[in-house]
User: Fold these one by one.
Assistant:
Number 1:
Amino acid sequence: MPTQEHEALVHLFRNSPNLAPKLMRDTLGVELPAHSDVKIACADLTEVQPTEYRADLVLSLSNGEPAYGLIVEVQLSMDARKRFVWPAYVASLRARWRCPVCLLVVCADSAVARWAAKPIQLGCKNLFAPKILGPDVVPEILDAVDAEMDPELAVLSAMAHGHDADVAKAARIAALAQGVSSGLDDDRSKLYLDLVINSVSEAVRKELAKTMLPFKYEYQSDFAKHYVAEGLTQGRVALITRLLAARFGSLSDAVRGKIAASTIEELDAIGDRLLTAASLQEALAPKS
């Protein structure tokens, strides 16, 4: 299941189709062909194979006809399977559009970025090497004008550098991202404000709180609320399951299923009852 961080990064690149080509050209030094527009294309890269290939985002740099294909993949952990399907993504889109295609892998972790950057052996001495955008190479947006010109890049910068040792600098990057996000349309504004505050360290949050943030941040976007609520529920399920097993012994699949389907309120009630319940059944269900 895609995580909040994965989906958030995909949202940034989808909301600003020019962001990926800009980073490819200006940050990674890739020479791109002249083009008049950048469009989001279908991310389904399946041909006649029974296996479905679906990328996170596919962009078409075109002059009426595709001149360059750019596949954006967000990779948050090391996954050996991806090193087999990534070349297929590129080969499939290249055959479909009959133009050069490049894969850009976006990594939030430096170690994952180093893993993803290793050339992939295809056989017969053929190598496949995607372009990697790790946190170390994401530009630091420290100027208000730069942030205003490219809000998505400002938010990406805050996400990449939110845990930097230089707290003052990280806080400035985050503050600029928050400032420019507050002037966007309602959906993007709420989402980006949540992304920034969720991506920075506690030290940076405290620095921001001195000037512009309340002590207790309340998530604004439905997107973030969904993942935060989902994370809280999953954590509560795991805790209650462990406590019940410790108190009453091994739990059946039916009991585990009942716990997993419970709401946070129901899980809290089970947690209160198991302190005094004489049996598992009494802990799971209130007395009538």
Number 2:
Amino acid sequence: MKIRKLTLFSLLSFLSVTVMTGQDKKDLDRNAIKNMCGCYEISFQYSETFSPVEGYEKRPDYKTGALELALPIVDEDNQISIQHLLVVNDSTVIKHWRQDWLFENTRVFTYDKDNTWTFRTLPAEDVQGQWTQLVYQVDDSPRYSGTASWVHVDDKHYWENKTDSPLPRREYTKRDDYNVMLRGNRHEITADGWVHEQDNDKVIRKDGEADKLLAQEKGLNAYTRVSDERCKVALDWWAGHEVFWTEVRAAWDEVYNREGTLTLARKVDDKPFYVYLKTLEEKGAQKDEILKVIQKFVKDDSDKQSEASR
């Protein structure tokens, strides 16, 4: 009887420690994600490193910089959303990308090609203790998502994942020799900010064929924290636009509540979605009206079959 009591006590103690350790780990994760917020000077650097294609001509290296505010717009136990705002010439603000971090999330979207994403549900047991990063474009349309665990070891704090995505904005209008980027993303918190390191495959994807690698590249985006005062203009801008973009996100959430594919037209009546958004904001549109415009960009199966037959 004594042995049974000791065994039961030991088991309960182990479970208690396990639960506490899990909560401590989640707190570390949340702190790492929230440390991505702030005002930053950013340097963007990309260089192609390899191609298996004979005669392939390496593209020039890409280097640029920016001032950006990464603003927490949702801070809940299982969700942290960060809106990025570019500051140009210390006076002009441009809404940039958004990243949502969801704990033990089972709903993800995966990029296929040709502006098409597949929405699916992951088994709950596969995402225990993990965080999903969902990345959205400047108009809050989808870009890519990936799920993995934050790692905290040897004074390092990082998250890494590999996932398909559309072409990056720096190449979207300049290249048509590949159509999918397989992104190797690593986000690491540093003493003075954070680093987004990338190992990317530029892939040619066609129906019924195996993917073909065109080239590989290395990317390094370094976020160096600077005085919050430098991004005050962005904070003020967001205060005047936050309500509208909350409605935009709510409208997109209606579209994202799906299983299967989502294909978006790049233009409707020869105008991209962001042009419509400008008009919608000027008139103070709410979710339902915004959703009606978004639906014009959502292609149905007949649209896809028509394009495939051309």
